[in-house]
Amino acid sequence: MKALLLIDLQIDFLPGGALEVKEGDQVIPIANQLMQHFDLVVATKDWHPPNHGSFAANHPWRKPGQVIDLNGLEQILWNIHCVQNTFGAEFATKLNDSGIHHIIYKGTDAEIDSYSGFHDNGYRKSTGLTEFLKEKGVEEVYIMGLATDFCVKFSVLDAIKEGFRTNVVVDGCRGVNLAADASAKALEEMKAKGARLIQSAEAIS
Ligand code: VGL
Ligand code: ZN
Question: pLDDT band at 205, cuts 50/70/90?
Fold first, then answer.
C-alpha cells in the first residue's frame, strides 16, 4: 500500500501569506493531480496556538530569523503563522481538499515546535501519523509540499526512520531558503539518508 503525504499546503505558506514560500502556489496543481492516483492521501497542517513558542512576537525583543533556546531545543523564530482556526491555517484555496482522507495537526503544543508530520522536534510526542499509516498497511510514502528545507525535510527523514520506503516528489516542493542553497542541501541530505528523489510524472507512471 502506498500513501501520498501532502505537507503544510496552507495559505500562510503561499505567496502573500504570513510565512510565504516563493512559488509555493505552484505545487498545488501537482498535489491535485497526484491525489487522483493514490488510494490514501494524508495531509499535514501546521496548527499553532496563538502563544506558540516559535513566534518571534511571543518573545520580548526577538525578531523573526533569530535562534533561541526553547525548552532545551534550538528554535528559529518565525512570523506568526498557521494559527489554529484562522484563515492563514486553511488549506490553499485551490487545493482539492475533498481528495484528502486524513489530516494530521502538528505544532499544537506551545512549548515545542514540530516540523515533521510524525513527531515534534524533540521526539517527545508522536502525531499519530506512523500508527495511522501502519494500520492502513502503508509501506511506501510519496511526500511533497512546503517547505522543502523544514517541514518536508523533517517529515521525509522521519518517514525513513519509521521504516517506510520514501519518495520525495521534488517538483511538488518549494523551500523557505533562509540561505540560498538550503533546499538543494536539504534534498541532498534526504537522498543521502535513503529517500528516492523523483518528479511527479514518475509518481503516477
Ligand atoms: C514550516 C517553519 C515554521 C514549514 C512550519 O511548513 O516548513 N516552516 N513552521
Ligand atoms: Zn510553524
Answer: confident
What is the count of structural domains for the chain?
Answer: 1
Residue 43 structural domain: 2-47+90-204
What are the pLDDT digits (tens) for 96-141? 999 999 999 999 999 999 999 999 999 999 999 999 999 999 999 9
Distance CA 159, CA 11 (A): 25
Q: How far is the CA of 205 from the centre of ligand 2 (A)?
A: 33
Ligand closest to Cα of 19 equals 1
Query: Which residue numbers are catalytic?
Result: 8, 106, 151
**What is the CATH classification number for the domain harbouring 157?**
3.40.50.850
Task: Give the Å distance between the CA of 81 and the centre of ligand 2.
Answer: 6
> Which parts of the chain fold into alpha helices (H)?
28-35, 129-135, 153-161, 182-192, 200-203
